[in-house]
Queue: 3 jobs
Job 1
Amino acid sequence: MSAHGTHCPHCSRPAMARTSRQITPTLRETTWVCRNEFCGHVFVTMTEAVRTLSPAAIPNPEVSLPFTPRRAPAPGGQLDLLDDPPSETSQTVYRRTADGGWKTSPA
Ligand SMILES: [Zn+2]
């Protein structure tokens, strides 16, 4: 599902995403299961899109996020992409609709 996971808050071992659902266009709830067989903790996280670094080319009118541009690109044009890892909600899938428009489709 996601390239990056999370860790159990109790034993700090990696956890596995069990279910995930979109609450709002900017908020996603994920249920995790600790992979440590001696722990077994099941817990829920919320992943929220909180600000925009680079505006969307096909913005959703329901989404309003504060715009905080990245630092100026380094000489040579390289962007510093390490500041903010992508969030779950950045992975919204855009699909073509029958009338030629765009529809967002949370996984
Ligand atoms: Zn654990």
Note: Residues 8, 10-11, 13, 34, 36, 39, 41 surround zinc ion (CB under 6 Å).
Job 2
Amino acid sequence: MGRKRERVDPSTELCVAVTEEGALVVETREQGLRRARALLRKYIPEGVNLSDELIAERRAEARMKGYTGEACPECGNFTMVRNGTCLKCDTCGSTSGCS
Ligand SMILES: [Zn+2]
């Protein structure tokens, strides 16, 4: 994630892709995957499983255990509890909804 590898191996397969902005770019497979992940990350918090069904299932399970059913934006666990006006994660202790 924090790694930086700009050197491209000559044997690396190159792909042509269109960016969000509509620009045409030539990139390695790795770069393309990284860009796709970054794009997804905008809509889905890190650590959250991408399967909708699984999310719904985990949410229902969390509610049965007394949690709100929200996913933690920090660790992705469905262990958010009411903490005054905001939510607090029972797993990692991070809060959401309050400043
Ligand atoms: Zn958490």
Note: The helical segments are 29-41, 52-64.
Job 3
Amino acid sequence: MTHLTDTQLQGLADGTLRGPEGMSAREHCEDCSGCGAELALYAALAGKLSALRDPAPPADFTATVLAAAEARETQLVQRRHTLLAALPAAAMAIVAIVGWALSAQVNRLIDGVMWMRLVVGVLSPVVETVRVPLVLGALAFVTVVLAALSRTLRPSHRVTTS
Ligand SMILES: [Zn+2]
């Protein structure tokens, strides 16, 4: 009889190899010291693996997880509520800032127009009284300039014609 394969030994160790095949394999292990030792090794390994596979959860595991999830959910809901409550406030703040800026701009425009009106109102009589002398002065200035120009041009004209 041939020795058992690793698959057969593992099946024997974890109890998945049953029936006639399992019976004959077990009988072989009782007679064969090599396969018996390997089966003992696999059995010990399977026992350790199954112990690892099912770690005992702490008694309050579920309660702790549920409490943590609930706290997280509450936190999220609160944050959402805070955001929702902050949105109108932010919108109102933006409207207030824009409105304030606009009104400041309009006030400045009105102030500017009023200042211009005031300046024009104050200056218009002055301009009215000053206008005639200004026009006369401008005329006199132009006359002087034209006279100077004609005086400087005349000799050169004379030189070119003679
Ligand atoms: Zn064997």
Note: The mean pLDDT is 84.
